[in-house]
């Protein structure tokens, strides 16, 4: 059996008294793109934060190569797992170049200062996210989409083989959404990166995921290949929405077309 690098076992997650996720088991397929979908407040970000050790489990554990994340030094984790949170906040006045450079921090120490390798990783991250021309700008004064790409660049510069991305396409126009998702796919195929992303767009999720995880109320309702998971029944069960699922005309993956929109009746 292949070793699974990132895994949640019997994971219970809570904020003080509010339990959000209970007894969740998840094996993140190594070297694949996993996409988590589900309604607002169902626990997607909470789960992702636990997978990146930003949240300590109440019960159960997250395992990285069989070792409990909670017992692994932060720096070791930062060298292995990159996490882009849903609403990251940047230090005031920081430039894009400086923000992206911070992604290299886990690779530095008193005996290993800024190197040519760090420089190259930052330059590549800026280039791949089309943020090179923004490098000297202050993060505060960017548009929502520009800022989002700067954060993605920081996560890329970290150079980890596991990337956790919470709604990486928010604020992005359709062309930049496709650019970011194509980039994620390329990182996966060319560099063997393991990706776990939360996405709201089911059709994009179906296009880009190898493994799709549908959540509701802190539980995994279904998981597997998008072609098997995304059905009208699932969309009804998870989102309470009537829809028709047809093959995507470009990729053949499931395309969810919501039921007819509300309209003024002609005879009303
Ligand atoms: N820091 C926090 N303190 C207390 N409750 C929280 C905190 N963060 C999230 N919650 C609660 O936990 C539940 C799950 O939130 P979470 O952010 O994981 O949802 P989500 O699935 O990512 O939703 P969305 O699609 O809106 O991003 C929600 O009820 C939310 O109010
Ligand atoms: Mg969220």
From TrEMBL:
The keyword Iron applies. Residues 6-242 form the ABC transporter domain. Its main location: membrane. It is found in: Cell membrane. It comes from the Bacteria. Pfam families: ABC_tran. Signal peptide: none annotated. Keywords: ATP-binding, Cell membrane, Ion transport, Iron, Iron transport, Membrane, Nucleotide-binding, Transport. Gene3D superfamilies: P-loop containing nucleotide triphosphate hydrolases. GO terms for molecular function: ATP binding. It is a peripheral membrane protein. InterPro entries: AAA+_ATPase (IPR003593), ABC_transporter-like_ATP-bd (IPR003439), ABC_transporter-like_CS (IPR017871), P-loop_NTPase (IPR027417), Siderophore_ABC-ATPase (IPR051535). PANTHER family: IRON(3+)-HYDROXAMATE IMPORT ATP-BINDING PROTEIN FHUC. This is ABC transporter ATP-binding protein. It comes from Kitasatospora aburaviensis.
């Amino acid at each position: 059996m292949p070793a699974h690098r990132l895994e949640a076992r019997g994971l219970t997650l809570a904020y003080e008294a509010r339990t959000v996720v209970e007894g969740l088991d998840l094996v993140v397929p190594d070297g694949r793109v996993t996409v988590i979908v589900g309604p607002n407040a169902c626990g997607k970000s909470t789960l992702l934060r636990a997978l990146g050790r930003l949240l300590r489990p109440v019960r159960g554990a997250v395992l990285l190569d069989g070792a409990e994340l909670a017992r692994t030094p932060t720096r070791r984790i930062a060298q292995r797992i990159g996490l882009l949170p849903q609403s990251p906040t940047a230090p005031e006045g920081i430039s894009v170049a400086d923000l992206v450079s911070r992604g290299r921090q886990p690779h530095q120490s008193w005996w290993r200062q800024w190197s040519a390798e760090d420089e190259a990783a930052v330059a590549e991250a800026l280039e791949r996210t089309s943020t090179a021309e923004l490098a000297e700008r202050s993060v505060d004064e960017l548009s929502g989409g520009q800022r989002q790409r700067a954060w993605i660049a920081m996560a890329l510069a970290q150079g980890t083989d596991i990337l956790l991305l919470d709604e990486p396409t928010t604020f992005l126009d359709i062309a930049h959404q496709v650019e970011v998702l194509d980039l994620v796919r390329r990182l996966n195929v060319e560099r063997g990166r393991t990706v776990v992303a939360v996405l709201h767009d089911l059709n994009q999720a179906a296009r880009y995921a190898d493994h799709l995880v549908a959540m509701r109320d802190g539980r995994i309702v279904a998981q597997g290949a998008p072609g098997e998971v995304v059905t009208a029944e699932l969309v009804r069960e998870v989102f309470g929405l009537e829809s028709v699922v047809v093959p995507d005309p470009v990729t053949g993956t499931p395309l969810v077309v919501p039921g007819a929109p509300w309209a003024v009746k002609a005879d009303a």
